[in-house]
Fold each of these.
Amino acid sequence: MPKREAPAHQRPKQQSKYESKGKSRSSEEDDSSSRGQQQKRQRMERQKQQATGELKLEARKKWEELRRGDLDPEVRKAKMQEMMELIQGRIKEITFKHDMSRVVQTCLKYGSSSQRASIAEELDGTYLELSRSTYGRHILVRLLKYCPKQRRAIIGAFYGHVRKLVRHKDAASVLEECYAVYANAAQRWDLVAEFYGNEFAVFKDGSAEGSLEAVLAAHPQKRATILSALRATVVPLLEKGTVQYSIVHRALLDYIRHADAKERQEVIETMRELVVEILHTREGAQAGMLCLLHGTPKDRKAIVKAMKPYLRKICCEEHGYAVLVEALDCVDDTVFMAKAVLQDVGDMVGELLGDQYGRRVPLYVLAGRNAQYVGSEALRVLAAGDAVRAETSKKDAAQRQRELRASFVGAMAQWVAANARAAVFEPFLSQAVAETLVHDDGAPGAAWAAVRALLAADDETAMRVLTDAVANRVVTTCIKARDAYARDVLEALAADGAGRLRAAACAGAFPVRALLEAPATAQRTRQLLADAAGSIRDAMAGAERKRTFEAILAGL
């Protein structure tokens, strides 16, 4: 029979690990603390034995005070002077260390112009080495920001090394800062031209209007050599996925523009998943548009699928939206585009229409290449690709636009029906309302009913819609677009014996002029306003702008 275990309260008490060793918990914590203090003292002793050890220790103490955000300006000025007296003449020795890099950065941030110049003078000749340093590169970025007179020297230090620097994990970010933020046109050209071969890395012409097109036009015999050098730089960057820098985007754009069809196709296949990463710059967006334009149907779908998780951000990008517009402009499979893009765009259309760039995508679907909605730069790229699009896309452009619009206008109509009361008075949103109503090919539905309801509401609301500088354009556009809309507007204004119509005419409302010009409503509008000519003339006499009154009277 097995032996039964005694109850817990009858078992002998076990010693804890502290009691078994004859120590208390507090004594062990004291030992741990003393060991930490001992290690700290040993570390400080080792630093003191270094050539710059005493300097580093003293500089860190002063830095802790100097970097405080709440420091009085006069106190900071005195502390800054003490720091400069400590490190001046020895900055090169300490720059490449983690903690001392922060010290130098703080000095550049809070120092006077003469103190900053003194630091820059000491570091002159080490700019290239600093750019390759994990910690030193931050100092170089601060020099670019706070020392304008040194920018030419810093950028000049990179000449002849651009192709190597762009592949370096630390130096590439500094090179990008120079190219994208601080370099002028001539300096940007000198930097990017090094991708074209050794000749351009050695000889700098300082041209502000430099471009690969100009070089190839002047020296067509160098075409093969230049494109070979450009490919040798671009392809490894694509394979490595290092495509986040705008200088790389410029090189990619140049290569895609000028490479022959076979070489271009090879690069496009490599870039399928990477296009989404280059859309935030002008050159990157144009390169992405060319990938869609020249790519096969398989390439185009792969690029669109890669963009799908980031549609909201892409639509609202200053340059990125144009790539999405290019996809809508050249992908023949409109069913795929409706599912992959337009369905999501429809779900967030309210947010997009309120954004400066986001609104351009839904308005492009409705109105096509309308310069009022799509940016001029995007329109230029789209137009330049029409000849290529005619060869790479089988579907007629007008048919593609109709199919896209048909799959999207329903979502827009729902939005208009829910938001018409506020949207017609907003400059950007009112354009979306008007375009939705104009391009809704079906019978007038809930969207138009929501707008018509504003005209049939109380007199104050109706007159506000008819005379507001923004809302009256929506009504006027609808009257001109469809006879059904014109008849509905006239019916709403004539419902109370034409009192609203006369009041609108005496206010010089544009919709009244549109009703007089529309064939479906002109005759009845003249009849309803026949006895109002005198009132309209009296109102015109006291008005500052008389052109609309004159047009209304002429229509009578």
Amino acid sequence: MHSQEALEAGRALVPTLVRQLRTLATTEAAPEHSVRGINDPFMQIALMRVMRTVARGSQAAADELNDVLALVATLDDAASNVGTAMLYECAVTALAIPSDAPLRVLAINLLGKFLANPDNNARYVALATLSTAVITEAPSVQRHRDTVLQCMSDDDISIRRRALDLSFALINAQNAKHIITEILRVLPRADLEFRSSMVYRLSAAITLFADSHEWHVERMLRVLSLGGNYLNARDLFKFIRLVAADADEALQRRATRISFALLERDISQDKMVVAGAWLIGEYADLLVARSQRASDAEAVAPKSPGLDEDDLDILGALGRPIQESKPEGSPEAGGAPGAIGLDEELPEAIPEPAAVVRLLSAIARSSSVSASARQIALTALAKVAGRFADQPAVVTSIRTTLGQFSHSMDQEVQSRAVEFDKLLSRELDGVRAAVVERMPVPEYAEIPYEEYVLNPTAMRMKALTIIKRPAMDPADLIGASAGGDAKAAAAAAAEASKQSVVSDLLNLMDEAPPAATSSPPPQQQSKMDSIADLLSSTSLSPIPTSQAVTSPRTMHAITSNDDLDREYEVFNSNGLKILLTPSKRPSAPQVLDIQAKFVNAGESAISELAFLVAVPKSQKIQIHPPSGQHISAGASVEQLLRVSNPGKSAVRLRMKVAFVTDGEKHESMFDYGGFPASVF
């Protein structure tokens, strides 16, 4: 690590280094120093690396570099390896210092051009750098989204990996549907080592950016059908709970019919089998029932023909049914059997009860599915028997199937088969209906996704400074008392000003609160201890699942609280007004949803909006992406915050907002603790 004295000495040499670089870039190269017509590229690269080191965190030094970096970027081209190396160093330097916005855009465009370079190394370093730059330069990187998505199908595995990471990092509310669809296209042929991460991040993206329950369910069913073997238990449970708790009856019917149709095609995806069997067992009456629009539904979703016993034997042995041959050129031709094109509607089946029994029996007999899937299939058979108790032939068929498993070598399977067969006997007619009725909505303490779930590169960042930030006041540093050593405080402030963008977020709650605050003062302790104890964590760790769900009476109180679902003004300065609207969901009473609304109350547009929030260490916060970073006059954008507050303590927010209006950048840090106690 460089000492502060050496760093200051290096910054004093910046004008000399700039002159040297300008001379090398503009003068004709001597033959002994020329490489492909570029004058001593090794020296130019060395100079840029030195200037990148000394100018990081220094606005004055960065201002000296803006012009010469733009000159180097325009004089060189990527026609040769040496030109590519020069442009790459120029782009990295521009992004690593608080350079002007036009220069940063130029740097992103240079890296975007590298993505079309036939050289694998150039494409790789461009993707790696863009994955880092996207944290603060997302609008510029978004211009190259289509090229990045094409790189997911590159022949080089390293480029595919980087392209996948960057594609996920580019997802926002505006492009989520398009990018998720493109990633789903890649999933079936993705490298095995990528699939677990892809499925996990796809589930996170779908959950974070779903604009309707219908789209959420449909996309998750596609994920299950294409990568169900890689879905984790938490995301599987969240999907099942979504259908059970949030979906209406029409969506439950559609999800169950789609699941049945997908399982008829393929039972090789284990989590798809688990979810489908569970849905069929719970909603078998919706699966086979004809609604008032049955004729319309049958025109769109053909009635399932069912499977005969020979087909079921093959289904159980191979993990998928026999597929009819597809005509050459059809969307499914040449793909995996049963694959559904992403441009096609998911199939829906309206089977007869006998077909439902045959499918569940085939799953229970299949050796290609997991033991838990077979157990759920047996449970589903018992539930189906309860749904169609008025059809003796169906119940008899189910009891015959259960009898086949009464001597299973799997103890759990054998136990379920015997118990369910007993449940379907005549002597238990009085209790059967209550046992097999639909399950209540599963209790679930929501676990938010990690802060950087869609961009793991952000977690690996150490010191990337891209945006301009003024040096902190020494009085804002924890432990810097008013009567302390001014020189030491100034040095600490200078060091703190070099913290990265990511560090600003992670350490936001480690700064002392500003003078004007809405939150109550801390208890009488030492200044250091009180702040460290109260406001020392912004961790986005999962909410403990052991938190109990409130009673129905409490849930009713939550939904009828007059202090919820109303706007609280927390900031109004320089034309920007921030309104917070707290709300709660009965399914997650310990989580406070806060909708932040940014209103442009001025006459000029607001751009580069950045909003950071932190909470006391007894609480956890999840920050969703904003709906936009540019606000026209009179318009507004929104951003969702979720605060886990299992202790029902007062919610105190420390907020930092930065934005640009009329070419001037404004930054403010402030506290708010004005929510009424009834909100908690």
Amino acid sequence: MWRFMNNVEPPKKKGKTDKEKAEVRREYDHNKRQRSFQITWLDHPDYCKWLRYDRETKLMFCSVCEKWAKATGAATTLTRCEFVKGCSSLRVESLQKHAKSHTHAKAADAKAASEKQPGTSEAEKLLKQLNKTAINQLSHKFRTCHALAKHARPFSDFVWQCDLDEAKGVDIGNAYRNEVKCREFTDAIAEILRQDLERQVTNAKFISVMCDESTDAAIVEQLILFVRYSNIGKITTKFLSIQPLERATAANCYEEIIAALHEQCGLQEPELWSKLLGFGSDGASVMTGRRSGVGARLKEHQPKIQTVHCIAHRLELAIKQAGQQVPMVGTMTQFLKNIFCFYHNSTLNRGLLRRTAEALGVTRCIPTRTGGTRWIGHTQQALINLQSGYPVIVQHLLEIKDDRQTSNDSKGKSAGFLKLLLSRPFIQFLHFMTDVTSVLGRLSYTFQRADINLSEIPKIVKDTIDSLEKLKTQNGPNVRKLERATSDGCLHGHKIEGTPIDRNVYDRVITSITDAINIRFEIDATQLAAAKVINFKSWPNELDQDFGDSEIAQLVDDFNSVLEEAGADPNKIEMEWTSLKESTYTDYKPVCTASWEALGIKYQADAANLFCMVDLLLTIPAHSVECERGFSHMKRVKTDWRNQLKATALTSTLRILMEGPSVREFDPHPAISHWNSTAGRARRPFQSPYGHRQSWDEPECDLPEESEDDDAMQE
């Protein structure tokens, strides 16, 4: 009533003391409602599809927003969304509020779009609504980007390629004709290839990783990765990624390998370690160190992983080790290097050598380099070129020796070269080493095959050693050819001096090489067992009922736990082996012509458990040669002029270059669909480029309509 009385203040309310306020708070805490999560919420039709409750933390989560909120581009709302980081307010009002939120609605739409059949999503429907002109224009641009990546051309070529197509009368439109869009198109094409890789790796039961390090044109350490797997006897090796390393330590390499398997293949920790069964490298201590190498770190999570030192690198190390034990090999290597530099570093000597070759009618006369890559094939080719150009080189060196205008340095070098080239022991040794390198080169080329596996190594190495041992007792084809050519004491009209070489030199070379190979290629019991049953060339010509039984039993015992995790029944493998062995001898005559891929097509349903173990053995890599080839492609892409190329662009370009289809077989439509569906905003294929802007000084003229710029320029 005090409000109806004028100029009279109402009496003040009696305030509570601090003690009374504390008593009120204690009473409220004692009698307040204890809220808890209601199990019935999980069955509620509005919440059952996305609600998740963690009993340990007593927090509520939205499974849809956790997975799909980032895909919607709502990354800024993730930090504010309680149901992503965990909602502690156990109220039905919180559930109702989140179900009606914009973030949840967009995440639910993204989830629904991903579950739709191809061709039914909104993005694909939108693409279909574009007229044929827009699709054809984008197809031309995507084909151009694919061709540029396939031939290791820079993104800047895309601009003038578009101008060239337009000059030819090709309708490519005015939009998306810059380097930024070329990079986007290239990433979209590479993403389609990556998605295909992810599907294949997901379907594979076992995988192996091969890696190597190298330095690019920007003096940045790069780690290249390949993945290998086998599906019903068919071996496949695919490019995974290439990543820069701040320091090439075992810890950094290990982290990059795991991150690449996460990002490129979609493998998470439990599935990753159950599938990863092989690791191949060049044998560097960073990779194969027993205590803290990359292989040792992988074995901490997967004890059954097979760490393999590349057989091609092992062969090169064995040859290098053997050459250090024979002085004559060192003399030959230094001679090949010096005579190459003599003609390579002097344009005068090279020009005079060509003129001498034209006079003698010889087409191949220039000495080649033995260094560069380490494969023995380069040394073999250098020896062959030296033999074919021998008469030209000797004639030119003789001319230099008697020419007064030649410098004393060149005269001294030519005299030293002639002393060796006209020496019978040295010439015999060159031809002998040509025969030796022919055998070793064949072995090296075999070791570099993409489909080779560890089971083939023992027989190939044994055949090579047998071929080398024969050179101790009988001359090879090049030595026999030399004996026929020097029967009169002359070689190509030039007299050679000296006594024939002691055959003990041949024996020392062969012995040192075979000993080094035997040491480098020691095979453990598991690999020997796999070699006997996996390699059909090791099978007997006629059916033996007991053949391979003990080896199969050993392999089953070694990989029992791994096979069980892959879904196979190890107890049935031995029975399936007996049945498949008889069928193989029946279908293939001789049995060495059989292949696991062909057998898998016919008998996979009857011997599924056995083929699971076969895929495991075939997945283990024998080399890391694919990494060396990858670095060769990297040097084509990342040149001195493109040394600022980012890792993502480099990975995309290399993926298209190595794994993409040919220019004629490329289909741009999947990449166009992906590019269009991942847009942050609507694509505008018909936008116009910048034109003349009307100045404000000409009010009497009508202003032209505002033109829209490319997405890249606005971004």
